[in-house]
Protein backbone atom coordinates (compact mmCIF):
# COMPACT_ATOMS: atom_id res chain seq x y z
CA UNK A 1 0.00 0.00 0.00
CA UNK A 2 1.36 3.43 -0.90
CA UNK A 3 1.23 6.17 1.71
CA UNK A 4 0.34 9.16 -0.47
CA UNK A 5 0.81 11.61 2.41
CA UNK A 6 4.59 11.33 2.32
CA UNK A 7 5.33 11.60 -1.39
CA UNK A 8 8.04 14.26 -1.64
CA UNK A 9 9.02 16.21 -4.71
CA UNK A 10 11.42 18.54 -2.92
CA UNK A 11 13.34 18.17 0.29
CA UNK A 12 12.71 20.59 3.16
CA UNK A 13 15.87 21.85 4.83
CA UNK A 14 16.12 21.70 8.60
CA UNK A 15 17.72 24.99 9.59
CA UNK A 16 19.59 24.21 12.80
CA UNK A 17 21.02 26.83 15.12
CA UNK A 18 24.28 26.35 13.18
CA UNK A 19 22.50 27.93 10.20
CA UNK A 20 21.40 30.77 12.45
CA UNK A 21 24.99 31.26 13.59
CA UNK A 22 26.26 31.46 10.00
CA UNK A 23 24.00 34.45 9.39
CA UNK A 24 25.71 36.32 12.23
CA UNK A 25 28.40 37.60 9.88
CA UNK A 26 25.82 39.91 8.35
CA UNK A 27 23.35 40.55 11.16
CA UNK A 28 24.65 41.24 14.62
CA UNK A 29 23.86 41.23 18.29
CA UNK A 30 20.32 40.01 18.92
CA UNK A 31 18.51 36.68 18.74
CA UNK A 32 14.73 36.44 18.97
CA UNK A 33 13.22 32.92 18.81
CA UNK A 34 9.47 32.39 18.58
CA UNK A 35 7.57 29.05 18.65
CA UNK A 36 4.21 28.56 16.91
CA UNK A 37 1.02 27.82 18.83
CA UNK A 38 -0.79 24.56 17.95
CA UNK A 39 1.17 24.39 14.73
CA UNK A 40 -0.60 21.41 13.13
CA UNK A 41 -4.13 22.54 14.07
CA UNK A 42 -3.58 25.77 12.16
CA UNK A 43 -3.06 23.91 8.88
CA UNK A 44 -6.20 22.26 7.41
CA UNK A 45 -5.83 19.37 4.99
CA UNK A 46 -6.62 19.82 1.32
CA UNK A 47 -8.00 16.28 1.21
CA UNK A 48 -9.16 14.95 4.62
CA UNK A 49 -9.71 11.50 3.08
CA UNK A 50 -5.97 10.80 3.49
CA UNK A 51 -6.02 11.41 7.26
CA UNK A 52 -7.42 8.43 9.11
CA UNK A 53 -5.97 6.94 12.30
CA UNK A 54 -6.79 3.46 13.58
CA UNK A 55 -6.59 3.42 17.38
CA UNK A 56 -6.81 0.17 19.33
CA UNK A 57 -8.77 0.40 22.60
CA UNK A 58 -9.86 -2.16 25.25
CA UNK A 59 -13.32 -2.09 23.65
CA UNK A 60 -11.97 -2.71 20.16
CA UNK A 61 -10.49 -0.67 17.29
CA UNK A 62 -11.68 2.89 16.66
CA UNK A 63 -11.27 4.94 13.47
CA UNK A 64 -10.56 8.66 13.71
CA UNK A 65 -10.97 11.12 10.84
CA UNK A 66 -8.82 14.29 10.88
CA UNK A 67 -9.22 17.58 9.03
CA UNK A 68 -5.85 19.08 10.08
CA UNK A 69 -2.29 17.76 10.09
CA UNK A 70 -1.90 14.69 12.28
CA UNK A 71 0.37 15.15 15.29
CA UNK A 72 3.09 12.47 15.33
CA UNK A 73 2.96 11.80 11.60
CA UNK A 74 6.16 12.09 9.56
CA UNK A 75 4.08 13.51 6.72
CA UNK A 76 2.91 16.34 9.00
CA UNK A 77 6.51 17.38 9.73
CA UNK A 78 7.33 17.55 6.03
CA UNK A 79 4.13 19.43 5.24
CA UNK A 80 4.72 21.94 8.01
CA UNK A 81 8.34 22.43 6.94
CA UNK A 82 7.14 23.52 3.50
CA UNK A 83 4.77 25.98 5.17
CA UNK A 84 7.64 27.25 7.36
CA UNK A 85 9.84 27.73 4.30
CA UNK A 86 7.07 29.80 2.69
CA UNK A 87 6.60 31.91 5.81
CA UNK A 88 10.30 32.68 6.22
CA UNK A 89 10.55 33.57 2.53
CA UNK A 90 7.70 36.06 2.85
CA UNK A 91 9.25 37.54 6.01
CA UNK A 92 12.58 38.07 4.27
CA UNK A 93 11.20 39.51 1.04
CA UNK A 94 8.38 41.71 2.36
CA UNK A 95 9.59 42.67 5.84
CA UNK A 96 13.37 42.36 5.46
CA UNK A 97 13.64 40.06 8.51
CA UNK A 98 16.36 37.37 8.21
CA UNK A 99 14.19 34.62 9.73
CA UNK A 100 15.15 30.94 9.89
CA UNK A 101 13.18 28.03 11.29
CA UNK A 102 13.46 24.46 12.55
CA UNK A 103 9.97 23.02 12.11
CA UNK A 104 7.89 25.39 14.30
CA UNK A 105 10.77 27.20 16.05
CA UNK A 106 11.56 30.52 14.37
CA UNK A 107 14.58 32.67 15.11
CA UNK A 108 16.67 35.48 13.69
CA UNK A 109 19.93 37.30 14.29
CA UNK A 110 19.57 40.96 13.46
CA UNK A 111 21.18 44.33 14.14
CA UNK A 112 20.46 45.71 17.60
CA UNK A 113 18.59 48.77 16.33
CA UNK A 114 16.31 46.60 14.15
CA UNK A 115 15.82 43.55 16.38
CA UNK A 116 12.86 44.83 18.41
CA UNK A 117 11.02 45.95 15.28
CA UNK A 118 11.71 42.65 13.50
CA UNK A 119 10.58 40.63 16.52
CA UNK A 120 7.13 42.28 16.64
CA UNK A 121 6.74 42.62 12.87
CA UNK A 122 7.16 38.87 12.40
CA UNK A 123 4.36 38.18 14.89
CA UNK A 124 2.14 40.80 13.21
CA UNK A 125 2.75 39.28 9.78
CA UNK A 126 1.69 35.87 11.14
CA UNK A 127 -1.53 37.31 12.56
CA UNK A 128 -2.34 39.06 9.29
CA UNK A 129 -1.99 35.74 7.48
CA UNK A 130 -4.25 34.06 10.04
CA UNK A 131 -1.56 32.22 12.01
CA UNK A 132 -0.54 32.83 15.61
CA UNK A 133 2.64 32.44 17.67
CA UNK A 134 2.87 31.03 21.20
CA UNK A 135 3.43 34.25 23.15
CA UNK A 136 4.18 32.45 26.43
CA UNK A 137 7.37 30.96 24.94
CA UNK A 138 8.45 33.95 22.85
CA UNK A 139 11.91 35.23 23.77
CA UNK A 140 12.36 39.00 23.21
CA UNK A 141 15.58 40.16 21.49
CA UNK A 142 18.70 39.72 23.59
CA UNK A 143 22.42 39.11 23.15
CA UNK A 144 21.96 35.61 24.64
CA UNK A 145 19.26 33.03 24.01
CA UNK A 146 18.65 29.31 24.31
CA UNK A 147 17.62 27.75 21.01
CA UNK A 148 17.10 24.01 20.54
CA UNK A 149 18.86 23.26 23.83
CA UNK A 150 21.89 25.35 22.85
CA UNK A 151 22.90 28.69 24.35
CA UNK A 152 24.00 31.26 21.75
CA UNK A 153 25.86 34.32 23.04
CA UNK A 154 26.44 37.22 20.65
CA UNK A 155 29.06 39.89 21.22
CA UNK A 156 30.76 42.52 19.13
CA UNK A 157 33.74 40.36 18.22
CA UNK A 158 32.66 36.75 18.50
CA UNK A 159 29.79 34.32 19.00
CA UNK A 160 29.85 31.52 21.57
CA UNK A 161 27.79 28.33 21.41
CA UNK A 162 27.44 25.87 24.28
CA UNK A 163 24.96 23.21 25.37
CA UNK A 164 22.46 24.31 27.98
CA UNK A 165 23.83 23.15 31.39
CA UNK A 166 20.37 22.14 32.65
CA UNK A 167 19.71 20.13 29.49
CA UNK A 168 23.11 18.43 29.76
CA UNK A 169 22.45 17.53 33.39
CA UNK A 170 19.06 16.02 32.54
CA UNK A 171 20.63 13.92 29.77
CA UNK A 172 23.46 12.80 32.07
CA UNK A 173 20.93 11.72 34.71
CA UNK A 174 19.01 9.77 32.11
CA UNK A 175 22.18 8.09 30.83
CA UNK A 176 23.20 7.16 34.38
CA UNK A 177 19.78 5.66 35.09
CA UNK A 178 20.00 3.44 32.01
CA UNK A 179 23.41 2.17 33.14
CA UNK A 180 22.08 1.49 36.64
CA UNK A 181 18.99 -0.40 35.46
CA UNK A 182 20.76 -2.06 32.51
CA UNK A 183 17.66 -1.44 30.40
CA UNK A 184 16.53 0.83 27.58
CA UNK A 185 13.49 0.43 25.35
CA UNK A 186 13.79 1.17 21.61
CA UNK A 187 11.54 4.22 22.12
CA UNK A 188 13.78 5.51 24.93
CA UNK A 189 16.82 5.00 22.70
CA UNK A 190 15.19 6.98 19.90
CA UNK A 191 14.28 9.88 22.17
CA UNK A 192 17.69 9.88 23.86
CA UNK A 193 19.49 9.86 20.50
CA UNK A 194 17.43 12.87 19.43
CA UNK A 195 18.28 14.81 22.60
CA UNK A 196 21.99 14.00 22.37
CA UNK A 197 22.06 14.74 18.65
CA UNK A 198 20.87 18.32 19.21
CA UNK A 199 23.47 18.83 21.92
CA UNK A 200 26.51 17.30 20.19
CA UNK A 201 25.72 18.84 16.77
CA UNK A 202 27.00 22.20 17.96
CA UNK A 203 30.40 20.98 19.15
CA UNK A 204 33.51 21.03 16.99
CA UNK A 205 33.67 18.49 14.19
CA UNK A 206 31.78 15.21 14.60
CA UNK A 207 31.93 14.85 18.36
CA UNK A 208 29.50 12.18 19.54
CA UNK A 209 28.61 10.72 16.15
CA UNK A 210 30.06 7.27 16.91
CA UNK A 211 28.07 6.63 20.14
CA UNK A 212 24.95 8.18 18.61
CA UNK A 213 25.06 5.57 15.86
CA UNK A 214 24.82 2.83 18.50
CA UNK A 215 21.79 4.53 20.08
CA UNK A 216 20.01 4.77 16.74
CA UNK A 217 20.77 1.07 16.14
CA UNK A 218 19.25 0.33 19.56
CA UNK A 219 16.07 2.22 18.59
CA UNK A 220 15.45 -0.40 15.88
CA UNK A 221 16.01 -3.39 18.16
CA UNK A 222 13.34 -5.55 19.80
CA UNK A 223 15.06 -5.92 23.17
CA UNK A 224 14.93 -3.73 26.28
CA UNK A 225 18.29 -4.99 27.55
CA UNK A 226 21.39 -2.88 27.03
CA UNK A 227 23.96 -4.67 24.87
CA UNK A 228 27.69 -3.99 24.75
CA UNK A 229 27.48 -1.44 21.93
CA UNK A 230 24.75 0.54 23.70
CA UNK A 231 26.60 0.46 27.02
CA UNK A 232 29.75 1.69 25.29
CA UNK A 233 27.74 4.50 23.65
CA UNK A 234 26.25 5.59 26.99
CA UNK A 235 29.68 5.72 28.62
CA UNK A 236 31.13 7.70 25.70
CA UNK A 237 28.25 10.22 25.67
CA UNK A 238 28.58 10.67 29.43
CA UNK A 239 32.24 11.66 29.04
CA UNK A 240 31.55 13.90 26.03
CA UNK A 241 28.74 15.83 27.68
CA UNK A 242 30.64 16.11 30.98
CA UNK A 243 33.77 17.61 29.45
CA UNK A 244 32.75 19.33 26.20
CA UNK A 245 33.94 22.90 25.75
CA UNK A 246 31.99 25.87 24.34
CA UNK A 247 32.45 26.67 20.67
CA UNK A 248 33.73 30.21 20.03
CA UNK A 249 33.67 31.70 16.54
CA UNK A 250 35.25 35.04 15.57
CA UNK A 251 33.01 37.41 13.63
CA UNK A 252 35.89 38.92 11.67
CA UNK A 253 38.30 36.03 11.02
CA UNK A 254 41.84 37.06 10.20
CA UNK A 255 43.08 35.56 6.91
CA UNK A 256 45.85 33.06 7.64
CA UNK A 257 47.99 30.56 5.82
CA UNK A 258 46.89 27.13 6.97
CA UNK A 259 48.91 24.07 7.87
CA UNK A 260 48.45 21.35 5.23
CA UNK A 261 48.97 17.65 5.99
CA UNK A 262 49.17 14.72 3.54
CA UNK A 263 48.95 11.15 4.90
CA UNK A 264 49.31 7.71 3.31
CA UNK A 265 49.72 4.06 4.34
CA UNK A 266 50.50 0.66 2.81
CA UNK A 267 50.90 -2.99 3.68
CA UNK A 268 52.87 -5.77 2.02
CA UNK A 269 52.08 -9.49 1.83
CA UNK A 270 55.68 -10.32 0.97
CA UNK A 271 55.04 -10.49 -2.77
CA UNK A 272 53.30 -7.20 -3.43
CA UNK A 273 53.11 -3.83 -1.76
CA UNK A 274 49.52 -2.65 -1.50
CA UNK A 275 48.35 0.89 -1.11
CA UNK A 276 45.00 1.05 0.61
CA UNK A 277 43.63 3.14 -2.25
CA UNK A 278 44.26 0.15 -4.58
CA UNK A 279 41.13 -1.61 -3.32
CA UNK A 280 37.80 -0.69 -4.87
CA UNK A 281 35.71 -3.62 -3.61
CA UNK A 282 35.77 -5.36 -0.24
CA UNK A 283 36.13 -8.74 -1.97
CA UNK A 284 39.50 -7.61 -3.31
CA UNK A 285 40.91 -7.28 0.20
CA UNK A 286 43.11 -10.21 1.28
CA UNK A 287 42.69 -11.74 4.72
CA UNK A 288 45.18 -10.45 7.24
CA UNK A 289 48.32 -12.46 7.88
CA UNK A 290 50.74 -12.08 10.78
CA UNK A 291 53.65 -11.88 8.32
CA UNK A 292 52.31 -8.73 6.62
CA UNK A 293 54.39 -5.59 7.00
CA UNK A 294 53.00 -2.08 6.93
CA UNK A 295 54.02 1.53 6.96
CA UNK A 296 52.54 5.01 7.08
CA UNK A 297 53.77 8.52 6.60
CA UNK A 298 52.66 12.13 6.83
CA UNK A 299 54.02 15.26 5.20
CA UNK A 300 53.33 18.45 7.13
CA UNK A 301 53.55 21.86 5.47
CA UNK A 302 53.43 24.45 8.27
CA UNK A 303 53.27 28.11 7.18
CA UNK A 304 56.69 29.69 6.66
CA UNK A 305 58.54 26.65 7.98
CA UNK A 306 60.45 23.72 6.51
CA UNK A 307 58.17 20.80 5.55
CA UNK A 308 58.31 17.83 7.89
CA UNK A 309 58.07 14.13 7.00
CA UNK A 310 56.89 11.76 9.73
CA UNK A 311 56.92 8.01 9.17
CA UNK A 312 56.34 4.84 11.14
CA UNK A 313 54.69 1.43 11.33
CA UNK A 314 51.61 0.22 13.19
CA UNK A 315 52.69 -2.50 15.67
CA UNK A 316 50.86 -5.82 15.74
CA UNK A 317 49.76 -5.08 19.32
CA UNK A 318 47.59 -2.29 17.89
CA UNK A 319 46.67 -3.80 14.53
CA UNK A 320 45.30 -7.00 16.11
CA UNK A 321 42.17 -5.07 17.19
CA UNK A 322 41.23 -4.47 13.53
CA UNK A 323 41.77 -7.80 11.78
CA UNK A 324 38.41 -9.48 12.44
CA UNK A 325 36.53 -7.99 9.47
CA UNK A 326 39.28 -6.62 7.26
CA UNK A 327 38.95 -3.21 8.89
CA UNK A 328 42.76 -3.11 8.97
CA UNK A 329 42.72 -1.92 5.36
CA UNK A 330 41.34 1.51 6.07
CA UNK A 331 42.43 1.51 9.72
CA UNK A 332 46.01 2.03 8.53
CA UNK A 333 44.90 5.16 6.66
CA UNK A 334 42.70 6.28 9.55
CA UNK A 335 45.58 5.78 11.97
CA UNK A 336 47.82 8.07 9.92
CA UNK A 337 45.09 10.70 9.61
CA UNK A 338 44.23 10.63 13.33
CA UNK A 339 47.60 10.29 15.06
CA UNK A 340 49.40 12.90 12.91
CA UNK A 341 47.50 15.97 14.23
CA UNK A 342 48.26 14.89 17.81
CA UNK A 343 51.95 14.50 16.97
CA UNK A 344 52.25 17.91 15.30
CA UNK A 345 49.85 19.89 17.55
CA UNK A 346 52.27 22.88 17.93
CA UNK A 347 52.26 23.32 14.12
CA UNK A 348 48.49 23.28 13.57
CA UNK A 349 46.58 26.38 12.53
CA UNK A 350 42.88 26.99 13.13
CA UNK A 351 41.62 25.56 10.87
CA UNK A 352 44.09 23.17 9.23
CA UNK A 353 43.73 21.07 6.09
CA UNK A 354 44.38 17.33 5.88
CA UNK A 355 44.42 15.24 2.71
CA UNK A 356 44.07 11.45 2.40
CA UNK A 357 43.71 9.23 -0.68
CA UNK A 358 41.55 6.51 0.94
CA UNK A 359 37.79 6.95 0.55
CA UNK A 360 36.60 4.63 3.40
CA UNK A 361 38.94 6.21 5.96
CA UNK A 362 38.06 9.77 4.89
CA UNK A 363 34.35 8.98 4.93
CA UNK A 364 34.45 7.28 8.35
CA UNK A 365 36.36 10.16 9.99
CA UNK A 366 34.20 12.86 8.42
CA UNK A 367 31.05 10.95 9.33
CA UNK A 368 32.29 10.44 12.86
CA UNK A 369 31.70 6.69 12.95
CA UNK A 370 32.26 3.43 11.11
CA UNK A 371 31.14 -0.21 11.31
CA UNK A 372 33.91 -1.33 13.67
CA UNK A 373 33.64 -0.55 17.40
CA UNK A 374 37.38 -0.21 18.20
CA UNK A 375 37.70 2.13 15.21
CA UNK A 376 34.69 4.10 16.46
CA UNK A 377 36.50 4.63 19.77
CA UNK A 378 39.53 5.92 17.88
CA UNK A 379 37.43 8.26 15.69
CA UNK A 380 35.45 9.45 18.71
CA UNK A 381 38.70 10.16 20.54
CA UNK A 382 39.91 12.14 17.50
CA UNK A 383 36.92 14.50 17.48
CA UNK A 384 36.78 14.84 21.27
CA UNK A 385 40.46 15.88 21.18
CA UNK A 386 39.66 18.54 18.58
CA UNK A 387 36.89 19.87 20.84
CA UNK A 388 39.23 20.11 23.82
CA UNK A 389 41.94 21.78 21.73
CA UNK A 390 39.42 24.09 19.99
CA UNK A 391 40.74 22.98 16.59
CA UNK A 392 38.96 22.55 13.27
CA UNK A 393 40.09 19.86 10.84
CA UNK A 394 39.17 20.05 7.15
CA UNK A 395 39.67 16.50 5.88
CA UNK A 396 39.40 15.88 2.15
CA UNK A 397 40.23 13.09 -0.25
CA UNK A 398 43.07 13.65 -2.69
CA UNK A 399 43.85 11.47 -5.75
CA UNK A 400 46.61 8.96 -5.09
CA UNK A 401 48.80 10.47 -7.81
CA UNK A 402 48.65 13.82 -6.02
CA UNK A 403 49.48 12.41 -2.57
CA UNK A 404 53.06 13.40 -1.84
CA UNK A 405 53.14 11.18 1.27
CA UNK A 406 53.02 8.00 -0.83
CA UNK A 407 56.78 7.35 -1.31
CA UNK A 408 57.58 8.25 2.29
CA UNK A 409 55.19 5.60 3.66
CA UNK A 410 57.30 3.04 1.77
CA UNK A 411 60.48 4.57 3.25
CA UNK A 412 61.60 6.26 0.04
CA UNK A 413 62.86 9.64 1.28
CA UNK A 414 64.57 10.78 -1.91
CA UNK A 415 62.36 13.84 -2.36
CA UNK A 416 62.72 14.93 1.27
CA UNK A 417 66.48 14.50 1.28
CA UNK A 418 66.91 16.39 -1.98
CA UNK A 419 64.78 19.33 -0.82
CA UNK A 420 66.22 19.46 2.68
CA UNK A 421 62.99 18.57 4.50
CA UNK A 422 63.04 17.39 8.11
CA UNK A 423 62.54 13.61 8.51
CA UNK A 424 61.24 12.26 11.83
CA UNK A 425 60.29 8.79 12.97
CA UNK A 426 57.02 8.58 14.90
CA UNK A 427 57.24 7.16 18.45
CA UNK A 428 54.71 4.48 17.51
CA UNK A 429 55.96 1.79 19.89
CA UNK A 430 55.54 4.18 22.80
CA UNK A 431 51.89 4.80 21.86
CA UNK A 432 50.82 1.14 22.18
CA UNK A 433 49.62 1.40 25.79
CA UNK A 434 47.62 4.59 25.13
CA UNK A 435 46.20 3.21 21.90
CA UNK A 436 45.04 -0.01 23.58
CA UNK A 437 43.19 2.09 26.17
CA UNK A 438 41.54 4.17 23.46
CA UNK A 439 40.22 1.24 21.42
CA UNK A 440 39.18 -0.77 24.49
CA UNK A 441 37.85 1.90 26.85
CA UNK A 442 35.28 4.40 25.49
CA UNK A 443 35.48 6.49 28.66
CA UNK A 444 39.26 6.93 28.31
CA UNK A 445 38.94 7.51 24.55
CA UNK A 446 36.54 10.45 24.86
CA UNK A 447 37.89 11.94 28.10
CA UNK A 448 41.66 11.65 27.62
CA UNK A 449 42.66 10.10 24.30
CA UNK A 450 46.22 11.13 23.40
CA UNK A 451 46.26 13.95 25.98
CA UNK A 452 49.18 13.90 28.41
CA UNK A 453 50.91 11.06 26.55
CA UNK A 454 54.65 11.39 27.40
CA UNK A 455 55.81 10.14 23.97
CA UNK A 456 53.72 12.76 22.17
CA UNK A 457 54.78 15.55 24.53
CA UNK A 458 58.40 14.59 23.92
CA UNK A 459 57.78 14.58 20.16
CA UNK A 460 56.47 18.15 20.36
CA UNK A 461 59.94 19.34 21.41
CA UNK A 462 61.03 18.90 17.77
CA UNK A 463 58.90 21.92 16.88
CA UNK A 464 59.85 24.30 19.69
Question: What's the topology here?
Answer:
Blueprint: H1 17-22, E1 30-31, E2 34-35, E3 52-57, E4 60-65, H2 74-95, E5 99-102, E6 105-110, H3 112-128, E7 144-147, E8 150-154, E9 158-163, H4 165-181, H5 186-200, H6 209-219, H7 228-243, E10 247-250, E11 260-268, E12 273-275, E13 293-301, E14 308-312, H8 316-319, H9 328-343, E15 352-356, H10 359-367, H11 373-389, E16 393-397, H12 406-409, H13 414-419, E17 422-425, H14 432-440, H15 442-447, H16 454-460
Parallel strand pairs: 11-15, 14-17, 15-16
Antiparallel strand pairs: 1-6, 2-6, 3-4, 5-6, 7-8, 8-9, 9-10, 11-12, 11-13, 13-14
Helix pairs in contact: 4-5, 4-7, 5-6, 6-7, 7-11, 9-10, 9-11, 11-14
Amino acid sequence: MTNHTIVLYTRSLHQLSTTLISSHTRYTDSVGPRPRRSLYRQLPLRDPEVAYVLLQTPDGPTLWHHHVLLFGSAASVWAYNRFGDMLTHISRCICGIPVLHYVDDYGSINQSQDSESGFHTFATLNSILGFHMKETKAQPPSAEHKIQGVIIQCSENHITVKPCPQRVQRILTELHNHLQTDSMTPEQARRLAGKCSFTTTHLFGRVGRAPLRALYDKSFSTSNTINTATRTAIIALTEILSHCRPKTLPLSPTPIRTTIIYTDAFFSDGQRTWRNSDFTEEDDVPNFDFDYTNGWAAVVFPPDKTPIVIHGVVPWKILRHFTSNRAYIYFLEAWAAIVTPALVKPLLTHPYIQLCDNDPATHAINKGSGKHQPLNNLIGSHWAWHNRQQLTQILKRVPSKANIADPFSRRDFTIATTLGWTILQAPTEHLVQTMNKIVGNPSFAHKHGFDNTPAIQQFHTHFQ
